[in-house]
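Still learning. Show one?

>
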Amino acid sequence: MPRVGILGGAFNPLHIGHLVCAQEATFQLELDTVEVIPTARPPHRQLEQDPGAEARLEMCELAVDGDDRFSVSRIELDREGPSYTVDTLRQLHEMRPDDEFFVLLGGDQAERLPTWREPEAVLELATLCAFERVGYSRNAIVVKLARLKGAERLRFLDMPLMQVSSSSLRHRVAQGRPIRYLVPDAVARYISEHGLYEAPAPVGSG
């Protein structure tokens, strides 16, 4: 039975922290592959400085190119409506009923699981695996999820402390600061070539 990690998110942009998460999950869970799934329309928030789902997907593809442990799926881009994890998991089970799925989450995402659509169905369809983050301890997450059926199956993974976020990268680009080594080189080139996340020109300039 193939063991498949699911790493979902906006990836606006994807950065080295995401890739280290995927690598650590592959090693610690003995996964056959990790599928990176960019969201088309996050159900709970508006994306800031969104270059569009196709651009975010392309950056993901550039980021994992050449690493056969990882792949990118457009399953949520090709489905209409908000991108709910439970819908994605049901669709994946229909497509590949023999696969075993592991949803990879940051601690902040894991703590918000009770607010997701059908959280207990998510816990039934996949093993949830959380990386602890500063401000989101293992104990706090366990308490938040305690009333959910299936929460006892939640697993915790170790992750090197990396203080990098997509929002901080967008901020750096807007300030004209370098982002090399914080994202794969191919992603940095894509952002530069397409002028993504740059600060708008002052009104009346030019």
About this structure: The longest strand covers residues 3-9. The domain at 3-193 is CATH 3.40.50.620 (Rossmann fold).
